[in-house]
Amino acid sequence: MKNKMTELKIAYFDQLGRKELDQAVQHFVLKHPNVDVKLLATSHDGAFAKLNEDEADIAINDLRDENLNFDETELTQAGVMAILPKGMYPNGIQMIEKDELNDMTCFIVAKPEEEVSELHLFKDLYQIGSQFIASNSVEEAALLVASGSGYFILNENTARLINTTDLQPLFLLDHGQLIKQKIMAFYKSNSALSSEFIKLLQQEY
């Protein structure tokens, strides 16, 4: 008789990347071959919605200013980077003050239903003074920026995953302090399987 598979459903904000998530899944399924791990890529708001509606056991998301009724575990704090056209600043420059970019257009990587949430992050929480234009994908934003049209923002983990041949990633500062994105695991009930998976995630980050 075949053993019944147990499910562990993980919703994640797709702009955070999934390298660490995939590595944690690989380790987890080796120990728990009868657990079917489902990864659900979604938006920032969508990850919380899936958790709230019991469509996910864990949500991997960045912590903003929402009033949440979930338990949470910090996974990492990732530096926020401005992705600029190649050669805009001399080689060796690794950081830039956000106010230096006020005259440039900032592309928000967001689908139409995500624009309000991402604009709130950049304009109100990061307090970036640029004009904002929405872009549907990281790939589209990268092409626009490579042609000299403004910049876009990613955290350092995600920035490592893109082709930067024609781009210049610089850490973003706010009055000398590195702007950081706090990446968290959110959950309603901390089952043994969820707890073990979150510990693996902490190790990968």
Automatic annotation (TrEMBL):
Coiled coil spans: none
Keyword Transcription regulation: yes
Keyword field: Transcription, Transcription regulation
InterPro entries for the chain: LysR_subst-bd
Record-annotated LysR substrate-binding domain positions: 7-201
Annotated Pfam families: LysR_substrate
Protein family membership: Belongs to the LysR transcriptional regulatory family.
Name this polypeptide is given: Transcriptional regulator
Organism from which the protein derives: Lactobacillus crispatus
